[in-house]
Amino acid sequence: MKIAIVHPTRSRPEKVLETARLWLRGYQPTPGVYLEYCLGVELTEVGLYADTILALQEEFGDQFKTRFLGGKRFTVDMFQDPTFSKYSESSTQVAHWLTAISKGNVLIKESKADWFVAIADDLHPCVDWNLQMQPTFERLLGQVAVVGYQNELSRMMVSHPVCTREFFRWNNNSLMCLEYIHTHADVDLWLEATGAGVLHTFPPEITLRHVHPLLDASVKWDDLNTLNNHTAIYAQGAAVFKRRVAELEQKYERVFNLANRTFERSA
């Protein structure tokens, strides 16, 4: 069995160094299980990540792989927003980066792994993460399956999917719906996987820490956190999500209740 950690990144080489070391150093070698770490860096940021990539290659060798990515970019109207000083001086068109979804998809397509653990610059593993996850990996190997986990607020999350290759193929060769830039994609995935009956959960003791200011008040907002949650990005996700909910409710004959976070069969 082969596991690939899929890590699309942007503009945060220091966080990548910390996070990659936590996942790779925390991996416990197991007979018959192989691990590769796939980092996706945009072509425009090769220089920014050079030292980080070199340090990880020196420490982990062939287990660590880097893919330099280019392709379609979103353009978003970053209207005046006092919460983000970089774009608050005037209304302007700003080219958005490649989405994490599209970058993750490229990494998966080039991997030969059976399981994919999609992470971000700020997603940290639990202790002995692969040993704790292995029973689930073995039980669902070869099936169409995506697995949720507990975050520090004890909510079941699929914000960073853990899935089989079969799920990726079933889901139109994508981790999540490609229409989203950032927000709402995780809830969309939860609805799709719940409706299709392919959503599973890790045991509750498997908790991954998302070091994000929305989940931990002690974490400072950085520019990427702020831009990812910018009003314009949120509005784009909300518009796509509204249409997708209607489509998924019809497709699976279920009703979505946001307040209770349920997606139950309609009467």
Low-confidence spans: 78-96
Helix % is: 25-40%
Neighbour order of strands in the largest sheet: 3-2-1-6-9-8-10
The name CATH uses for the topology is Spore Coat Polysaccharide Biosynthesis Protein SpsA, Chain A
Radius of gyration: 18 Å
Number of domains: 1
Topology:
Blueprint: E1 2-8, H1 13-25, E2 34-42, H2 46-60, E3 64-69, E4 75-78, E5 92-95, H3 100-109, E6 115-118, E7 123-124, H4 129-140, E8 146-150, E9 156-164, H5 165-170, H6 185-196, E10 199-201, E11 209-210, H7 223-228, H8 231-252, E12 254-257, E13 262-265
Parallel strand pairs: 1-2, 1-6, 2-3, 8-10
Antiparallel strand pairs: 4-5, 6-9, 7-11, 8-9, 12-13
Helix pairs in contact: 1-2, 6-8
Structural features, described:
With 267 residues, this protein is of the alpha/beta class. The chain has one domain: Spore Coat Polysaccharide Biosynthesis Protein SpsA, Chain A. Helices cover 36% and strands 24% of the residues. It has a seven-stranded mixed sheet, sandwiched between helices. Strands 4-5 form a two-stranded antiparallel sheet. Strand 8 and strand 9 form a beta hairpin. The model is unreliable at 78-96 (pLDDT under 50).
Descriptors for this entry?
267 residues; 13 strands; two-stranded antiparallel ribbon; Spore Coat Polysaccharide Biosynthesis Protein SpsA, Chain A; alpha/beta
